[in-house]
Design goal:
There is one protein chain. The protein has helices at 3-17, 22-25, 27-37, 90-100, 119-135, 148-163, 186-189, 199-209, 243-255, 280-296, and strands at residues 48-54, 57-63, 71-76, 103-107, 140-146, 170-174, 232-237, 260-265. The longest helix is centred in the middle third of the chain and has 17 residues, at 119-135. By secondary structure, it is an alpha/beta fold. An 8-stranded mixed beta sheet has the order 1-2-4-3-5-6-7-8, sandwiched between helices. It has one domain (3-296): Alpha/Beta hydrolase fold, catalytic domain (Rossmann fold, 3-Layer(aba) Sandwich), CATH 3.40.50. The protein contains 10 helices and 8 strands. The radius of gyration is 18 Å and the shape is globular.
């Protein structure tokens, strides 16, 4: 790592350590701060955006000037199931669109605690079904999501496998939160290394999402069987408290005979891609995502 990159990374880590949590601000203010912070990550002006609705769900196409007309990515944003939006994750999704030379569909699913499980997941299923109904016969559809959005992506895929519905050509999970019991060793091993997440905060967030059994396979989708799935790319940071979620999922996918590419990025934290404007590792990881999706579509 160069001195410049190391300096940038240190500055980002210091900023994140001082960032408020929903515990300290309340959920509404936490959401507003996330939306406000998105102003520092203005998406490329070379993209065409088209806003519309899918069954009353706000959605937006992000279309790079250079793209494969038959390549679509459904992007599900993170935010701990309680925050996040098209706006907060537009820069990240736009960068993936450019890297993959694909049309990206991003949307606002319902958030907890106002709309607890399974309402957000129902919206994810609605949007995917709309894509299948509209484009399945002529387009290659990939799934992508970060953090809780990756969890929803994995839960969607598990449901598709269970019900025998059409599968995406591939799926990309960025720093996935897929075990809401928060019991894996990386919570202890990486405590203090990941400025984005803490075990006690995640446990409280999980209870805002649902009061049901957290081992439910649709709530903690790592507990599903993924035999017969299309290929996966999983990216996680070496210093993430959620690193074991990715490692255990990759092991489970391999055991089920599923093609999976697990990338563990040195010194990186939760969804470092979000800071791609400033962090070279973010840009490099996004390019890897683009290359992976282009391989299968």
């Amino acid at each position: 790592m160069s001195k410049t990159t190391s300096h940038i990374l240190s500055a980002i880590l210091e900023h994140l350590k001082s960032s408020p949590t929903f515990e300290s601000t309340g959920i509404e203010q936490y959401r507003k701060l996330l939306e406000k912070s998105a102003a520092a990550f203005k998406p490329s002006t070379t993209l065409v955006t088209k806003s519309f609705s899918i069954a009353a769900i706000d959605a937006q196409w992000l279309i790079p000037l250079q793209h494969n007309e038959n390549r679509i990515i459904l992007y599900t944003h993170g935010g701990g199931y309680i925050a996040g939006s098209i706006n907060s994750h537009k820069d990240l999704a736009s960068r993936i669109a450019v890297a993959a030379e694909a049309k990206v569909l991003i949307y606002n699913y319902r958030l907890a605690p106002e709309h607890p499980f399974p309402k957000g997941l129902m919206d994810v299923k609605t949007v995917y079904q709309w894509l299948i109904d509209t484009y399945c016969h002529t387009y290659n559809i990939s799934l992508a999501g970060d953090s809780a959005g990756a969890g929803l992506t994995l839960a969607l895929l598990a449901g598709l496998l269970n019900d025998g519905h059409p599968l995406p050509v591939c799926s990309v999970l960025i720093s996935p939160w897929i075990d809401l019991e928060c019991k894996n060793n990386s919570f202890i091993e990486n405590q203090g290394k990941d400025p984005m997440l803490h075990q006690h905060i995640l446990k409280k967030t999980a209870r805002l999402y649902t009061d049901k059994d957290l081992s439910n396979p649709m709530i903690s989708p790592i507990n599903n069987n993924f035999s017969g799935s299309s290929p996966f790319l999983i990216q996680t940071g070496e210093n993430e408290v959620l690193a074991d979620d990715s490692k255990l999922l990759a092991k489970k996918l391999k055991a089920a005979g599923v093609s999976v590419q697990l990338e563990i990025w040195d010194e990186m934290f939760h969804v470092w891609h979000y800071f791609a404007r400033y962090l070279s590792q973010g840009r490099q990881a996004i390019q890897q995502i683009g290359n992976f999706i282009k391989t299968y579509s």
